Structure formats: C-alpha cells, structure tokens
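Late entry, evening session. Most of the bench is empty. Finally got around to the prediction I had been postponing all week. Sequence below, unchanged from the version circulated by S.P.
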Amino acid sequence: MHCTMEAAQQHASEPVYPPIAAVSPPRPWRWIVLSVLLVLGDALLTLLRFSQSTPAASQQERFWWYALMPGCLLAGLAVSLRWAWYALWQLFANVQQHAQAQHHGWWLACRQESACVHQSLLWGPVCGDVQRRDMLARGLHTAPPRAAEGVLRLADVVSAAAAAQQQRREDMLSAFAKTLATWLHDSPVHPSGFAWCGRAEDWSALRLHLQRHGLNLPPQPQLEGGIAMLEYIIDRLHDETRSVKAIVCLGLHCPAPDDSRSVPAGEAAFAIMLSRHGGAFRLHRPVPLSGNHSVARAQGNAALKEAPASYLSASDQANALLENASWPLLEQPQQAYWGDPGPLQAWVTLLRAMDQTQINASATAWLATEDKQDWLGVVTPAPLSEKGKPCND
C-alpha cells in the first residue's frame, strides 16, 4: 500500500458533517388566524346551504354543529399535523446530532491512539552509532564540513567515500543490513509487518543483503511512502480485527552528488520498531499544519493540557503559528548536521525529537515539510505502567 499525501491529509483532517436544517416551531398567531378562517369558512358554507333550501327541523336544531364542528375539526387537524411534523423533525435532528457527536467522539479517540517505540536506529553524517547519536542530541557534536560535491556523507559507516554512486549505495545498503540484522536478532519483539521509505530498488537490494544474515523480508513492504505512513501504522496497530504485534519502519537515502544545492544533500537511514504497547516513547498522529486549529489538534492528539516542552524544526527556523501558541523552539540546527535528507527529512526530525524526549523526560514536538506540506507531531514518554507491558494484548 502506497501512502499518498492526499490520502494522509484527508485521513488526518477533522471530519465535516452535513448541516442539519433548523426548523422553527409553529407560530401561534398564524395558526390562530388559520383556525378562525377555517371556522368562518365552514360557517359561511353552512349558511349558504341553508339559504338555498329549506332544511329539515332536525337539521335546523343542529345548525351550529354543521356551522362550527367541521371547521374546528379541520383547524385542529391542521394544527396537530404541523406540531407533529415539527416534533418529528426535532427528533430526527436530535438523532442526527447524537450520531454526529458519537462519530466525532470516536474520531477524537482514534486521533489519540499512538504507536510505542521499542527500538530505533538512526544514521547520519555525524550519527553512526548510539554514542554519537546521544552526543548529537545533547549538542556536543560538531557539524561536519561541507563536502565539495554537495553531499554530507556517512564516512564513518561506509569507508569508500569516493566510490561511484551505485557502488556507494550498495556499500551503504550492505552496512545498513548488517546493523539492522544485529538489531533485529537481539530484539525481544518480532515484527509482523514492514514499512519502507525509499526507492523500490533499494528495498529489493536490502532484502538480498538481509537474507545473507538469515532474515527474510517480504517481496513488497506492507506500507510505503513518507511520514504519511505513521497514520496507517497506528491504524494497523490498533485494528481489533487483525493481530499486528509490531511494525518496523525503515528508510534509506543515498543522494547523488550535486554541488549546486543551497543546502547540501545528506545521506541518512533509520529504523523504528513500533507496537501498540511497551517501549519508552509514544509517537502520536501528526497533523498537516494549516492554522491555529492544527496546532490545537496536534496537542489534542497527544492529550496534552499544555504546550510541549519544546519542538524541533527541520528548517532551523521558528514557525509563527507555534510561536503564537507559545510552543518554544529548541534551537538545535538540523541542516548543518544533516543537510537535506530528502524524503527522510520528517523521519529524521521525528527521531531527533524522540532523543530530546528521552533526555528531558518531557513531551517534544517536531515540525517538518514533506511534499510542500508542513507536518506537526508530538513525541511523549510512555507511562510507567505501559513500558513493561507486552506488545500483544
């Protein structure tokens, strides 16, 4: 399944319900006038009938019954039908409003579902192992020098820095597969699905490399795309009809040299094992940022009463909407350390926010752009009661 940006935006957008037409209650003076007219009309018809022929004595004795009763009955029937229609419409409107309220409550509950992180792996120009990843998160690592070819390389992971592009990609996939195999073999949780962010050819090559380490990936990933995958990963983890214990989301970016870039490209790779329970972090559903309501929605998705302790921006700049909502920017430049990681930009920012959540033990938000759309998400520490809970219910 390829997760398109349009589908993800529609999935994350608040549902719009059709308006229910309001009906005003019957106005008494209108129905009084109608009743009087009906009664008078009946009386006039009765008088006209009596004037054209000589009624029987019994009919003369019941003149007022003939003159008033039909008009009163018609007036009463008209008023009753009008009030009955109004009552039925009110009942219909109340039922519709109740159904919409229930659906909106269900939608809000779904929006607050999250994915728990069991393990994660992050590669970058200055992030090749756990120790350097921690140093980078704490601001203790110096930025890499800008390469002449316009690409920030993974020099510590792949030694052949000057190799041809295709060979470097193969070396990077081989090193990534070796690290990933060790990571998965040591994991107490076995994934039941895979998601991929990258080229289809790289997925096929990664499968071949992992087969040499005794791991078999499916021919095609269950999910494929960018940060939009997080929406559907959370859906699958919380789907009661299918048992999905854990999903591993993988991504790799190995750009070609291009020294004309204003921001150098950056090689990057990541892996995250996500499940419904357990782990140390919760990844909440991201929101397409389009206004103040989007900021409130991102905070609501994480069930936060206050703004997160800080947020990271992939563009190294503060966002006006977040500033107005009193969300503080954590000034830790991303472009200087990572360059432009292409389709992995949002995932790199999310993983960096996850590192800050671990360091500060508080909620951290992330802001990144994908396909010209800004996405805002929140990472929170998992509750202590959840950290030891198994991933299968």
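Two things to note before I forget:
Residues 250 and 275 are 14 Å apart (CA to CA).
The first strand starts at residue 2 and ends at 3.
Will write this up properly tomorrow.
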